[in-house]
Predict the 3D structure of the following.
Amino acid sequence: MQRRVIFLCTGNSARSQMAEAWLRHLAGNRYEVVSAGTEPTSVNPLARAVMKERGVDISAHTSKAVGQFIGETFHVLITVCDNAKEQCPIFPGVLQRIHWPLDDPATSAGDDAQQLAVFRRVRDEIEVRVRAWVAEDGGGM
């Protein structure tokens, strides 16, 4: 049986979307993975752009409300911001709760190049964390 993983942040616009995509990209079908937000907005175009730079397509991703997953069972819940950690609903059956306090690239200031630099840094940090977690987790097996 695949382990189910949910990534949670506030807007489900960048960090959790990138984390979902990295896990799917790096672990294939070893996990069933989704992402959601406590206050979903829309997927940030810069998140789409920086993931595409690495060959990971999130153009079809949409922001989802965490409420639509209430009642579902997840084995692992990973929050990627403090707000989501504090506001996270209870999911029965969660065996592992992990918190990755990542900077929100959507709130970065500056011109396009400066904002892209922040998105790239966060994208790369998420990739490192996902790779390490999959290695530690044994790939969901």
About this structure: The two ends are 8 Å apart (CA to CA). The chain has a mean pLDDT of 91.
